[in-house]
Specification:
Layout (H helix, E strand, L loop, with lengths): L1 H7 L18 H13 L2 E7 L6 E2 L13 E2 L3 E8 L8 E10 L2 H16 L2
Antiparallel strand pairs: 1-4, 2-3, 4-5
Helix pairs in contact: 1-3, 2-3
């Protein structure tokens, strides 16, 4: 995953003997990914929940968390670009979303998801 981020997010050629930053396991390296997108005008949100407190991706017909959409991960990262006049009301369609057992993993997965969504 770290080599993919170096190549796909930062555009770096990765050689076998080269040290690749530990984006998916080290918060200092993962924060470089956050700053990279923030500098380009992306809103990056990172959340960590207490153990055993899941994320829900959808609500049911009673506006309650839908158990079918439960994600049992500790951390979530969302990368979205806001429209020029929206100021938080409507994100642009292109976004990255990632979940993981740690914040660096969630940031890394969101960055790769964003890259994939931009190529669709």
């Amino acid at each position: 995953m770290d080599a993919q981020i170096a190549q796909m997010v930062f555009g770096r050629a990765v050689l076998q003997a080269q040290r690749i930053p530990s984006y998916s396991t080290d918060i200092r390296d993962a924060w470089d990914v956050v700053e990279h997108y923030r500098a380009q005008g992306w809103l990056v949100r990172v959340q960590e929940h207490p153990d055993g407190f899941p994320f829900y991706l959808a609500l049911d017909e009673h506006n309650m968390p839908d158990e079918r959409s439960r994600v049992n991960q500790r951390a979530m990262c969302l990368i979205e670009k806001l429209g020029p006049a929206s100021y938080g009301l409507k994100p642009w369609a292109c976004e990255g979303r990632g979940y993981g057992s740690s914040a660096p993993e969630a940031i890394s997965r969101a960055a790769l998801d964003l890259v994939e969504n931009q190529h669709d």
